[in-house]
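Many introductory courses stop at the sequence. We go one step further.
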Amino acid sequence: MTRATEREVDVVTMDVIGNALEAISDEMFITLQRTGRSMTASQTNDMSAGIADAKGEIVSTGKRFGHTVAASEALRNTLKKFAGRIDEGDVFIQNDPYSGSNHMPDVSVYKPVFVDGELCYFVHTVVHHSDIGGRSPGSLAHDATEIYQEGLRIPPIKLYSRGELNETLWDIIEKNTRGNSMKGDLRAQVAACFAGEAKLKELVHRYGQEQLHFYCEALKDYSERLVRAAISEWPDGEYEFEDYIDEDGVDPDPILLHVKLTVKGDEVFADYTGTSPQVRGSLNIAGVEGISSVFGAIGAVANLETPNNSGVFRPIHVYAPPGSIVNMLEPASCGARGLTTYRLHDAWMGVLSKIAPDRVAAANEGGTSTGRFGFIMPDRKYLVLYDNVYGSPGGRPDRDAYDGLGSGEGLGAGLTNASVEIIESRYPMRIRRYGFIPDTGGPGKHRGALALVREWEFLQQSDFTFRSDRRRFRPYGLFGGEPGQPSSTYHNPDKEGEQLPAKMNTRFMGGEILSHITAAGGGWGDPLEREPQLVLEDYLEEKISLGHAREAYGVVIDTHKVEVLADETSKLRQQMRRAHRSRSKKA
């Protein structure tokens, strides 16, 4: 632990400074939202902003925590590469997964902040760009087998040097990416960095650099203490869990995610030994994400309200075997790694269900179903649409899942599905259907969220990349809860209704329709313990059918009086329990 012990910490001052740093990070994020050009920046919020110290350790990230570990790793690599060569007016850029990025569409832009000629901080932004080049629109081809197929790979480099734009690099970026949204988003990132720098210097002027630095260290120490206190309440021991990704879209074999958590006092040791080797497709992840996946689960379960900074990671020790899917080696591809990170969240939540069963939700839909659409318009303008579909978390210990909420209720917090109206106004695309599918949520004492359906009608030819999962291995239920329904994807559902692969890289013509149904969240607890009145409410809200109420929950409803038939329900549930016990004995 790096404690700020030079003098006594004034908790009021620390809280005020912590809130001020968070406000600066949030203002940077809002700048990205208001000035970004792509759907990512203006609609879906797959981005983050924050402040780091001169060592590259994160001081604040505001409300969005998703890219924290990667941002810190990128900053440390930059400090190592440019030691003694970082000047006022510099702005850095990088997207190399082997240098700290999650995958190449996640482009980091960060600016050093000097105080009296001394490097004291960095302001940083990360935005998932709609396209970074490569073999398919959106740069997320699941079947890319090497990183070289995935687009323009940028090591830590100066986008601005002492205030002067690196026009050569700018031209290279422009000529190697589809559409023109990347330039707009990069300008937004630079603007956000300048806004953050100005506000941070105001804070330095108010408190002085020495005092501000002291309280930045104190905030990291405070976050560490909160995490350690939460961990210390858990029983010591080793806990393991396994889950599977269906396949990588290149090879048909399922991918094992094996995780073990050892709790020892106020520290945890996470181990991925036993997880599948890196795959040929692009579901691999860089080692830094193995750390963030563990903390994301711990933070959700412990209900931590810590300042978002590097201190939270100090009690968490992670081992990810090199060459595994969670710690890829060059030249492995990783464009579709987002699916793996969501599934790691599920796996770690499965582990934590054994430690804190009253705090852990069942599995969510398995990560975002991600579509990338490329259109060449009649004027030869290139448009790239980035459209995610997600929002089916698992049932919770104290209540049902929230239908339509972002995946994981923690991992995907703050992310949104794109607006139908915005899509239709900007792209040659019509959204024919968008809503919930009844009878799909995992039955349980607390029901899993319903599956979502989205149907795209192509108004002209489009190259298309798609990534989904949880078709073979359904979202698990917990403590007697049942799994959610699997995902499915159909071509022209009103006609032949051909089922398509879960992962594909193909082309659609104008007039064709693609329909995707996400997996549904798993249930929590025995469905036969669900309050019959809640089953009736689900029926009245058309979330379940009459038959599903009876078959999944043992609830008999009088449709004329619109009420639960208590005696019939009690008898049916007794019969179902006896049948369950009989099947269990035979098994």
